[in-house]
User: Fold this.
Amino acid sequence: MSYVAIEALNAWGLFSRSYYLSCVLGARTERKKKVTLTLPPADPLGFAIAHYKPKAQPKAGGVWHRRDEPPWHDPNVLMTLCGKMGCLIQPQINAAFSLNQNVFKDLPVFRNFFAHRNGQTAEAARRIALNYTLASSLSPAELLLSVSPGMSASVIVDWLSEINITADFLCKA
Assistant:
């Protein structure tokens, strides 16, 4: 379960980063609509980093350190950066995240538990159980494998579906 949680968040973060870079490069959506920006940055990664870490500087040769990049798994990063660049599909990007999906706020908490495994991260994960009408006495792994009342799949399967729906919505823009 730890592998699935960590890799799901990593995959989403990489998708979000790639989507951002694709917007800057003028990619086309599935509907063949070209993504255009009113304020395209000369250095897309530098633009993103400068917004979130204004004091960060590239290494010699203009290469940015990966730790200076924003937390791509946070939907607000993609929405904010695309908004600042004047992305013409911004309404569709905002709509993709308006579905109030739990995965983007809850999965990072479980990822932190599985990556750090301490009392504080375990408690943070257990507190989320109540949002799914599940017992907070369950371990974080058991929580992710549990099926909330009224749902047909486990929490982790629902989250993976939410990620897929969001990515699909973004690509169709």
